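Researcher: Here's the sequence for the chain we discussed earlier.
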Amino acid sequence: MVRIVPRERDVYHQDTDYLPYLTVSILVVGLLLGGTLQAGLGAAREWEKDTMKELLLSPAGRWTMVVGKMLGAFVVTLLSVLIVLAVLIFVIGVWPVHWGEVIGFSLLCLVIFIAWGTLLGTLLKSRQPVVALAFGIAIPLFFLSGAFGPISFNTVAIQVIAQSFPVYYAIVLQQHAFHNFDLNPYGLPVNVLILCGYAAFLILLAAIALRRSTVAH
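Model: Thanks. This is the structure I predict for it:
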């Protein structure tokens, strides 16, 4: 006879209900939609009203235009982000474990999604397809990127697709900021570097798209 005495050892110091986990993922998708729509609609409006042609004739550099439009969208969207964070923390009661990470990761995600919106608005040059594409992309990514649980619970194909988009890494970082969860083996520095790479790549694409539009017009 062998006597076995079970002993529980918790990996995390706190329990997290399903709703606090889900609301953090919704925050990321809210950042995606808010940043994409604000920047995308602003960029597309310039083409619809033909004010972009006047800007292109100015001596301002293309990088200056892209960064300026992104900064404008960033400032406008920042207020709505602060409101969403306030509701999430003080109304719903999802208190962050790491306050600094919440602020830093939210700002980094906002830069990425604003760069994506600027690129869409520059390429499509019309507000209606920007809105359709923004919602059409955000909803599938919400389900694919671990909004309801770690993507390790899904098939390999879904895991590969999820890790191809910045939304997945944004959810991983925000879940760590709020709940101290480690949802992938890469660690915080690698996840942050991946998102920084997405930000730089999208800003570069937006500048290239604006330069090619200059040649076309």
